Amino acid sequence: MDIERLKSKILDTQEDGKIPCKKALEIAEEENVPPLKVGEILNELKIKIVSCQLGCFK
Fold first, then answer.
1. Could you tell me if residue 33 is inside a domain?
2. Which residues of 1-58 form beta strands (DSSP E)?
3. What is the distance between the alpha carbons of residues 30 and 54, in angstroms, rounded to a whole number?
4. Of 4, 24, 47, 50, which has the fewest CB atoms closer than 10 Å, so is most exposed?
């Protein structure tokens, strides 16, 4: 797993410090990493999840 590439992809995808849940899950699948790892990086980068598919984050 290339953490820097993953961070770069997340930073390129986010908008105004936010990323849709669906897109975060897509990144996890594309990069073959667990969604939890993407979540950890989102926390580290202080990027919020929006449009949560479970309705947890708005």
1. yes
2. 18-20, 48-50
3. 21
4. 4
In a domain, 56, yes or no: no
Residue 51's pLDDT is what? 85
Q: Report how far residue 7's alpha carbon sits from residue 50's, in angstroms, rounded to the nearest whole number.
A: 18
Domain that holds residue 21: 3-50
Measuring CA to CA, which residue among 40, 49, 51, 53 is closest to residue 7?
40
Q: What is the pLDDT of residues 29-56, one digit of tens each?
A: 999 999 999 999 999 999 999 987 766 6
Instruction: Count other C-beta atoms under 10 Å from residue 24's C-beta.
Output: 24
How many domains are there within the chain? 1
Q: Are 28 and 35 in contact (CB under 8 A)?
A: yes
In a domain, 57, yes or no: no
